[in-house]
Write a structure and sequence with these properties.
The protein has helices at 2-21, 37-50, 82-91, 113-119, 135-138, 150-158, 182-188, 197-203, 216-221, 239-252, 268-274, 280-300, 339-353, 359-370, 380-394, 400-414, 449-457, and strands at 26-32, 66-71, 123-128, 164-166, 191-195, 209-213, 260-266, 305-310, 314-315, 319-320, 416-417, 423-424, 428-434, 442-445. By secondary structure, it is α/β, with parallel strands linked by helices. Helix 6 packs parallel to helix 7 (182-188) and helix 15 packs antiparallel against helix 16 (400-414). The chain is globular and about 65 Å long. The model is unreliable at 1-20 (pLDDT under 50).
């Protein structure tokens, strides 16, 4: 009898504690694509190195009070891709690599946390630094057998009741049947499409549903993503802009909605790691700046807000240290542009200067933009590899090989090691703060994250 009374009392105390704490009315879900624990460690260690010391300089989100380690394997593979990883994070269901919003039979659709939030009366936002139809954002609204069905994914987007989308653009907006393109279909579906943060500010008030894309000029250069933070100009859309606009718009809906759910993806951490380009560090710091926008909101609504940050998988098999017990992440500070932009710059110089673009001219350019032979000590072997790659540019083979050699030399100078250009099954972290954040502690599967978030918000998992 005493045990039964004690058990009943314990249940009542837990229930009272939950009631006292309340529910998460505003839920933020940040996903750093490709962001393993070493990517986070690299960014904080890099910031410490900039201060001239060994150790870390804390970012915002890794300092959140609750931390977990996440398993990421898919239903069919020991190493997941972003589609299966995104589906697990969004819906709590494992699926086949490449599949989005369906089970591993590739046909059975699943619901996700965006659906659960909307059915509970919350406003919903889905945002990313890459294209709106890319794997991770699409996992929160689309149902297709393969992630590369970009047009079909975009069609499904135009028919959703999602309140706000933010991204670079559509990957494939053209209608293969010759009918209205995705921009027109989105307008017919009730969306107001704006280009850039300033246009958002002008048109947000009257819009019922919104899609925020980057300016046309940026999409002409790269439709698939906003620029890397390191390559950004003052007119470029940023992940901070997208996050700030999403919060602003979702709060405008609060006269008709009850709270909101917002997913924000830092998609180009993954792209940098796929390329084995140390630029991933500034991308991760840039996502942290977007998290700070949400954290400011949390500080204004601490009893109603939950922020969770995690990743779909680790990319690159990143190692911090190569043999010697040393690390030189300060070397990354000498990098002034991504390898993607470098390739474009090299090709442009070759086209403009022709034979006048000599190895000596190239060395000067690399010194200015990567610190080689100046801030960074470059060995004779590394110099020879760079010169061989430059000769391929002279021979008309493009600047890709030289850009690749440059990023490898930067990694070598920083003593960063890469296992591959693909994903790994390394643990990814979860960080949380706010209402229900205590659930995000320990080790658990990626399928549990959205369910824990729904529990904190009181949304029914279906």
């Amino acid at each position: 009898m005493k045990k039964r009374i004690f058990s009943t009392l314990s249940i009542l105390l837990v229930a009272l504690a939950c009631f006292a704490e309340g529910k998460a009315k505003y839920v933020f879900y940040f996903i750093g694509d490709g962001m393993g624990v070493n990517q986070v460690n690299a960014a904080e260690t890099y910031l410490g190195a900039l201060e001239g010391r060994i150790g870390i300089q804390e970012l915002c989100f890794p300092s959140f009070p609750y931390v977990g380690l996440i398993n990421t394997q898919s239903a069919t593979n020991g190493v997941t891709d972003s589609a299966a990883g995104g589906t697990a994070l969004a819906s709590g269901n494992k699926t086949k690599n490449g599949a989005l919003g369906v089970l591993k039979d590739l046909t059975t659709p699943v619901t996700c946390i965006a659906d659960w939030a909307r059915e509970a009366g919350a406003a919903v936002g889905i945002t990313t630094s890459v294209s709106v139809d890319h794997a991770t954002p699409a996992a929160f609204y689309a149902h297709v057998g393969h992630r590369n069905e970009y047009y079909k994914i975009g069609e499904q987007l135009t028919k959703t009741d999602v309140d706000f989308f933010g991204a670079s653009d559509f990957n494939k907006p053209e209608n293969p049947d010759g009918g209205p393109d995705l921009y027109e279909q989105a307008k017919q579906g009730g969306f107001t499409i704006v280009r850039g943060y300033k246009e958002y500010q002008k048109k947000a008030k009257k819009a019922e549903k919104m899609i925020l894309f980057q300016p046309e000029e940026a999409s002409k250069v790269e439709r698939g993503s906003i620029p890397y933070a390191i390559d950004r100009t003052k007119n470029d859309l940023t992940l901070q802009d997208i996050t700030r606009a999403a919060i602003n718009f979702l709060m405008k809906k609060q006269d008709k909605k009850d709270g909101f759910f917002l997913m924000v993806e830092g998609g180009k951490i993954d792209w940098g790691c796929h390329a084995n380009d140390p630029v991933f560090i500034t991308e991760l710091i840039d996502m942290d700046n977007a998290v700070k926008v949400a954290y400011e909101f949390y500080q204004q609504h601490p009893d109603e807000t939950l922020i969770v940050i995690t990743a779909d998988h680790e990319t690159g098999g990143l190692a911090l240290g190569k043999g010697p017990y040393e690390l030189n992440l300060k070397a990354v500070a000498s990098q002034r542009m991504s390898a993607v932009k470098l390739e474009r710059e090299l090709n442009a110089k070759k086209e403009k200067m022709g034979d006048a673009f000599t190895w000596e001219e190239c060395k000067k350019f690399l010194t200015e933009n990567f610190g080689f032979w100046d801030a960074l000590q470059v060995s004779d072997d590394q110099t020879a590899r760079l010169e061989r790659s430059f000769k391929e540019l002279q021979e008309g083979k493009g600047g890709g090989r030289l850009a690749g050699t440059v990023k490898h030399v930067i990694s070598e100078c920083a003593l960063i090691g890469w296992q591959s250009g693909g994903h790994s099954n390394g643990y990814v972290p979860a960080f949380a703060i706010g209402v229900g954040a205590e659930q995000f502690h320990g080790r658990f599967d990626n399928t549990e994250i959205c369910k824990k978030m729904a529990k904190a918000a009181g949304w029914e998992v279906k």
